[in-house]
Amino acid sequence: IWQIVTYMFFHGSVLHILFNMLFLWMMGSEIERLWGSREFLKYYLITGCGAGLVNVLVQPRSGIPTIGASGAIFGLIIAFAMAFPNREILLYFLIKIKAKYFAILVGVLELVALFLMPSAPIARFAHLGGLVVGYAYIRRKHLGQPVKRKITEWHQEASVLASKREAERRARQQAEIDRILDKINKQGISALSDGERKFLENQSGKTS
């Protein structure tokens, strides 16, 4: 019975553990800071055990060993997507994609691979189980509400920061307008450079 826990700590190759630990570092560190170490560890073990249990229930007679932390990692993917839905991540280190779309993408790809490559030695049901168990756990009120509250706080902080930056931008524009007008008063409009003329023209067409 203990194999439902210990299977998570075995891997089939260096690349297998490398990619799992990369996601654990990238997404797990953010979730741990958000929830705290105790809640994070509990979530990681629950999704990992749940993923293994789903795989056993769906494929009780499978002769392929199920090893690796991928089920728990897929749980972290859905947790990250729910906590930071619009956070951009680099797919294959090249393509920017929002976390919520990334979670949907990996789920769809696992389903497609399940039907197209049913005999592949990969525990697809463990991956999908990690997503489902993670989503169900986060939807619980005691965890879902703090996540929503934290996201609301971040949105408010972002709004305040955006307002501050806009005020600073307007102040810089007004200072530049004052400088140019002062130059016109002292040297005449013919002393303006092309850039200064264009700046005044652009500002004259805007309303505050």
Summarize model confidence as the mean pLDDT.
81
| Sequence of secondary-structure elements | HHHHEEHHHH
For the biggest β-sheet, the strand order reads 1-2
**Helix coverage percent:** over 70%
Sequence stretches where pLDDT stays below 50 over 5 or more residues: none
Proportion of strand residues:
under 5%
Largest sheet: 2 strands, antiparallel
The count of helical stretches stands at: 8
What best-fitting shape do the alpha-carbon axes yield? elongated
Distance between the termini: 68 Å
Specify the oligomeric state. single chain
Question: What is the CA-atom radius of gyration, in angstroms?
Answer: 26 Å
Description:
By secondary structure, the protein is mainly α. The protein is 74% helix and 4% strand. The protein contains 8 helices and 2 strands, in the order ααααββαααα. The protein has helices spanning 3-6, 14-35, 37-58, 70-83, 99-116, 124-138, 141-187, 194-204, and strands at residues 88-91, 95-98. It has a two-stranded antiparallel ribbon with strand order 1-2. Helix 3 (37-58) packs across helix 4 (70-83) and helix 5 runs antiparallel to helix 6. The longest helix is centred in the last third of the chain and has 47 residues, at 141-187.
Write the layout of secondary structure elements.
Layout: H1 3-6, H2 14-35, H3 37-58, H4 70-83, E1 88-91, E2 95-98, H5 99-116, H6 124-138, H7 141-187, H8 194-204
Antiparallel strand pairs: 1-2
Helix pairs in contact: 2-3, 2-4, 3-4, 3-6, 4-5, 4-6, 5-6
